[in-house]
């Protein structure tokens, strides 16, 4: 898992909408170490919407970083534990929060006829994310794909 391969995990997340940021509580792993090895940042993709009853998805590409500033962490704690109060019991000295900031997104609603697909850059995502959270706040899981760049292959 540490060789730059994509990684996916279903996790609880919290978010702020302006500017759009998604927060994930985790613990030290090989993938988190790979982010640290890249200076605390890495390209990532997030998919929100695993509920087949709603059949609504939000795909995003962007950057993930480790939140390390104590003042920032206090704000993240407030946001995250307000949405997931039970998650606070897993908070420890080794708890790590990742912050995902999207740069591209695609919103799809497969229940409309014809299906609705809208995509764009970060600026217009705030409105879509607010609608998605308002319409279906039970979308509590997302898949995180940490795409860590592989070192270049030297040509001979």
What labels describe this entry?
alpha+beta, eight-stranded antiparallel sheet, 21% helix, globular, Pnp Oxidase, Chain A, 156 residues
- Which CATH C-level class is it? Mainly Beta
Q: Could you please say which CATH topology applies here?
A: Pnp Oxidase, Chain A
Q: What string gives the helices and strands in order?
A: EEEHEEHEEHE
Q: Give average pLDDT, whole number.
A: 77
Structural class: alpha+beta
**What share of residues are in beta strands?**
35-45%
Number of domains: 1
Q: Could you give a short account of the major beta sheet?
A: 8 strands, antiparallel
Quaternary organisation: single chain
- The CATH homologous superfamily is named Electron Transport, Fmn-binding Protein, Chain A
Specify the number of helices.
Answer: 3
Low-confidence stretches: 134-156
Structure overview:
This protein has helices at residues 30-37, 70-83, 125-135, and strands at 10-12, 14-17, 20-26, 41-48, 56-67, 96-109, 116-121, 141-146. Strands 1, 2, 3, 4, 5, 6, 7 and 8 form an eight-stranded antiparallel sheet that branches. The longest helix is centred in the middle third of the chain and has 14 residues, at 70-83. The chain has one domain (10-146): Pnp Oxidase, Chain A, CATH 2.30.110.10. A hairpin with a 6-residue loop joins strand 6 (96-109) and strand 7. The chain is of the alpha+beta class and 156 residues long.
């Amino acid at each position: 898992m540490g060789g730059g391969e994509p990684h996916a995990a279903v996790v609880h997340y919290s978010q702020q909408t302006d500017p759009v940021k998604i927060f994930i509580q985790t613990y030290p792993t090989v993938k988190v170490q790979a982010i640290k090895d890249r200076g605390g940042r890495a390209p990532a993709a997030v998919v929100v919407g695993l509920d087949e009853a709603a059949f609504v998805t939000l795909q995003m590409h962007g950057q993930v970083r480790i939140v390390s500033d104590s003042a920032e962490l206090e704000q993240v704690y407030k946001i995250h534990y307000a949405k997931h109060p039970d998650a606070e019991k897993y908070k420890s000295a080794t708890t790590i929060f990742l912050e995902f900031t999207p740069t591209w997104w695609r919103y799809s609603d497969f229940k409309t006829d014809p299906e609705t697909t809208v995509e764009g850059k970060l600026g217009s995502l705030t409105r879509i994310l607010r609608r998605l959270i308002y319409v279906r706040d039970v979308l509590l899981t997302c898949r995180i794909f940490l795409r860590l760049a592989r070192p270049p292959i030297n040509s001979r």
